[in-house]
Write a structure and sequence with these properties.
The structure is a single chain. The chain is α+β, with helices and mostly antiparallel strands. It folds into three domains: about 100 residues, no CATH class; about 70 residues; about 210 residues, Sortase (Sortase, Chain: A, Beta Barrel), CATH 2.40.260.10. Helices cover about 35% and strands about 10% of the residues. The protein is built from 14 helices and ten strands. It has an eight-stranded mixed sheet. It is elongated. The N and C termini lie far apart (about 140 Å).
Length: about 475
């Protein structure tokens, strides 16, 4: 048959040996078939197109079924005399096979390329349609199989999908989620909401609210400075505030603050600290716990004089309340510095300019006490009195302070003196109070204070719960209880 090879194929650079495809036994059978006589051979040549197709199909079928070098069981060898067919006819038949092979390969490549460019055919929708379809032909079998998509139970997400949408699918429960996945997402959502709520609360508590409080304090301070440098002429002031009724005898420097809030009773400042703020007095002691000087809701409130006190004629004990927030130093927060002697030495004098006169006070004592009786075996130390019946009773109160004071300041006090009490919260135990007591500067007395005389007390008296909180034995458990009269 020769060693001719066919290499003109579009499926790659690999050469195909046509002789390896054609079965030798089958060629022998074909030779015998067409060797009957010359007239039949001539008929084959005249009907070449049809014979070419039939012969090619038979040859390809036989070569696929029969192994090499073995005779086909269905076509036993013919006698030797059947080989009278000429070599020229065999060579012509082989050439025809080559033409058929090349033409088939060319058509196959063209078909495969065309199929790759065509859109995928729609899938069948029912078993009935599948039964009515004809058997697939060769072209259908050569069509590439579609990709197999496994249903994972989750909605497919395009790579181009919005990042935020993908995040929502990962966070919020969706259709197809299992029980475990749904629980995980719900727990995650609860954690996120909790984090946001807590974050917002902390942001408001530690950043926003203190910032607003400082702005209000600054605004009031600027108004205070303006008032002190303003016009003292009442005719000008009343023309400026025609709808405001000012108390008789009030100092004109307080006009702007009083016109802003008629509950204003004075300005308190402690040199050596940042405490410089307006003092108000409400109808009761609850109004300004959460109301600012500008009568707006505020957790810092406003420092206020006890509702029982008289600002026109000062009582024996003038009491001013103020908040001490654990997270900032607004209002009375800086009174915490007085727990140590160094705090007293830095700021031993208090200035309280009331509506009617300017006053200065020397700090006499600092002590811790309780805000309710539960912290001291039912006893509430009564330091919030306004007046007492006599100087002698007042002296007994001074004795009670001396038992409780954290340190001595070196400042003396007489039974006839008036005192100023600053009261705020502290956190040594539940509902604890920090109290700073100062006595009024006497007429003609110097405001100078010798802070070198200050010294710590050996064993100050604390409320019972302080000893419980610090795990110490209370030596004053059976102490004498004092009440004002």
């Amino acid at each position: 048959m020769g060693d001719k090879k066919v290499s003109n194929n579009k499926r790659g650079d690999e050469e195909v040996n046509i002789d390896s495809i054609i079965d030798k036994a089958e060629l022998e059978r074909l030779r015998q078939k067409y060797a009957a006589d010359d007239s039949e051979t001539a008929g084959i040549e005249n009907s070449y197109p049809a014979a070419k197709e039939n012969a090619a199909d038979e040859l390809l079928s036989a070569s696929a079924e029969a192994p090499d070098d073995e005779p086909s069981p269905s076509h036993p060898p013919q006698p030797q005399e059947s080989q009278a067919h000429s070599d020229d006819n065999i060579e012509q038949l082989t050439s025809s096979f080559r033409v058929i092979y090349e033409d088939s390969m060319t058509k196959l490549d063209d078909f495969t390329t065309a199929k790759a460019e065509e859109p995928a055919a729609p899938a069948q929708t029912s078993c009935e349609e599948a039964e009515n379809d004809s058997p697939p032909d060769k072209e259908t079998l050569l069509t590439p199989l579609p990709e197999i998509v496994t249903d994972t139970g989750e909605e497919s997400v395009s790579p181009r999908a919005n990042t935020f949408q993908r995040l929502l699918k990962k966070v919020f429960p969706s259709k197809g989620d299992g029980v475990g996945e749904s629980i995980r997402k719900i727990v995650l959502l609860i954690a996120i909401v909790t984090m946001l709520v807590c974050g917002g609360y902390l942001l408001n508590l530690y950043v926003i609210t203190p910032y607003i409080g400082k702005l209000e304090a600054k605004k009031a301070s600027e108004l205070w400075i303006k008032s002190n440098n303003g016009n003292d002429d009442w005719s000008v002031i009343k023309a400026k505030y025609p709808d405001v009724v000012f108390p008789e005898g009030m100092l004109p420097k307080h006009a702007d603050l009083y016109a802003t809030n008629s509950d204003f009773v004075g300005w308190l400042q402690i040199p050596g600290t940042d405490i410089s703020l307006p003092i108000v007095q409400g109808e009761n002691n609850d109004i300004y716990l959460e109301t600012s000087f500008y009568k707006e809701k505020s957790i810092h409130g406003c420092c206020f004089m006890d509702s029982s006190n008289n600002i026109n004629k000062l009582d024996r004990n003038t009491i001013i309340h103020g908040h001490n927030m654990s997270h900032d130093d607004l209002m009375f927060g800086q009174l915490e510095t007085y727990k140590k002697i160094s705090g007293f030495k830095a700021a031993p004098l208090i200035q309280f300019d009331t509506l009617y006169r300017d006053t200065k006070w020397k700090i006499y004592a600092v002590f811790l006490t309780n805000g309710d009786g539960s912290a001291d075996n039912g006893y509430l130390f009564p330091y919030l009195f306004r007046n007492v019946s006599s100087d002698q009773v007042f002296k007994t109160y001074i004795d009670q302070i001396d038992k409780r004071k954290i340190y001595s300041t070196g400042v003396d006090i007489l039974p006839t003196d008036q005192i100023l009490t600053l009261s705020t919260c502290t956190y040594e135990f539940n509902n604890a109070r920090l109290v700073v007591v100062a006595r009024l500067l006497r007429d003609g007395e110097s405001e100078e204070i010798d802070v070198s005389k200050a010294q710590a007390s050996e064993d100050p008296l604390y409320p019972h719960y302080w000893y419980v909180a610090t795990k110490q034995k209370n030596p004053y458990k059976n102490k004498e209880l004092w009440y004002p009269s």
